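User: We ran a pulldown and think these components assemble together. Before we commit to crystallization trials, I'd like a predicted model of the whole complex to look at. Sequences follow.
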Amino acid sequence: MFLAQLKNELWKLFGKKRTYIGFGAFLLAQTAMLCAFKYTKWQSDFEKLLNGNGYLASEFISVLTVSVVMLIPQIMLLMPLYATLVGGDLVAKEAEDGTLRMILSRPISRVRLLFVKWSAGIIFAIALVLALGLTAMSFASLLFPWKGMFVFAPGQAFSVLTAHEGLVRFIFSLLFMAVNASVMVSVAFMFSCFNMKPAAATILALSFLFLSMVMENIPFFDRYESWFITHHFKCWLLIFRDPAPWSQICQSEIILFAVSATAFVIGALAFQVRDIKC
Amino acid sequence: MIELRNVIKKFAGRIAVDDLSFTVPRGEIFGLLGHNGAGKSTAIGMMLGQVWPTGGEVKVCGHDVQSNRRAALMQVGAIFETPVFYDYLSGWRNLEILSTYTAPTSKARIREVIEWVGLTGREQSKVRTYSHGMRSRLALAQALLPKPELLILDEPGDGLDPEGIHEMRQTILRLQRELGLTILLSSHLLNEVEQLCTRIAVLQKGKKVFEGNVADVKAARGRVALKTNNFTAAAKLLRERGLIIAMAEERFITLADGHSTADVTQALVSAGIAVEGVWQHEQTVEDFYMSLIRPPAAKN
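Assistant: Here's a predicted model for the assembly, 578 residues in total across the polymer chains.
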């Protein structure tokens, strides 16, 4: 029964046009960035940087390198927007439209309903990241060859990886990006469970994420950086460090899972005690 | 089928439902009347486990809604004032989605319900293309999917044209006749309530001010219509002789105990007042409702 409910929740989610806004925006952004990289000074500056560090630029301006270059601004700016947009809609939009009242006239428990909705949100987050990663690679492969990988990694100036190693790390980075997107969906979902409009839930979630990012970057808060969830979002880039800091990554991933679970529990508690009225 | 016992609901200190108790037995069409904000929808919300009571007990199908919501709602269907669906999906898909919140439902059952409500041929169209009447039928279809024994209708006539209201009335009667459902109907349409319901409860500012049979309301000792060439003089005479206790709207009188319309006619004729007609005026639910909620100062 859970699977049938989840399938139907996905029908609802993917039947809406606004669900695809994120996918569409990513495609446009990727196309624009790919063209900018290929046809502006961006590529030549990149080549100079590689050559200046003793690497043969032609061996590292590749599908994987360009894919990550394309992904960085989208992950920083667009992904929070679209993940929270969908997460904020999950419960609040149904409450606003009145369909929630119809659902809750049926014998499904509120917690189960929320779990189904949250699961659908997580699936959306994974789909969004997969689509983002795969289209980035597909687009990049149209104009660049399959070769080694050059990537800027936090805490390290840059990393240079073989094509095979780069691909493995890229797959891991997609996995960590999916966790990040899931956390963003979960935070928006939590606000969505309170009595508020979907836009308010999205804005609150975005504010929470941006506040975390801003505070994390204030030097005064350096020693508290592990308290900010955006600090843990960096795993998707940390994986490109050589060697990969697995213990730090695992710690951050556990914290992100805990944040997601906490957001769900807080949302469920708020929703459980709420009166559902038109 | 429904039992409310001393139910109280407060929203931020404001009392929405105050010590409400009533029972709806199996097979009855029960009407819940009241002005906007009287507490009807809140009471229905509590029956469906959407609104948590502040105090009291709500039982549906023999189960406490708060402690055993699943069992209580297993065979309950509900329709709300404005039928809302996932407009971007087909009627069929909407029914599939809603059915999974109760129990696994076969395609044959969905088809059967669609046929029952008369939506065959349009079930694959997107709901956004449906008229208001078709949405109402789809709302009925989703309510009937779990083979309910109890149907809760919250203002189902809202927004319907006279033809739609007529159709709704016929459908409700058909539901009881063919499927033997118990129906709780909350409505502003007093005429509909009068024609459909066997019993009613009237809420005012969250409090129940009346509960009883519609037949009793209509048969209650009501007003007598009097048509004369001088109503004021006639009423004054009748009052002086102790034959009536009240008059209203320049055409109605209320007889005093122990007197009949024959006594009135005889008194007026002997006093030289021409009587064009005297007849028992059957009280409508609307008359009764208005007499309940009208402030005492306005009563004649």
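Chain A touches chain B through 27 residues (CB under 8 Å). That may be worth checking against your pulldown data before setting up trials.

User: Thanks, that helps.
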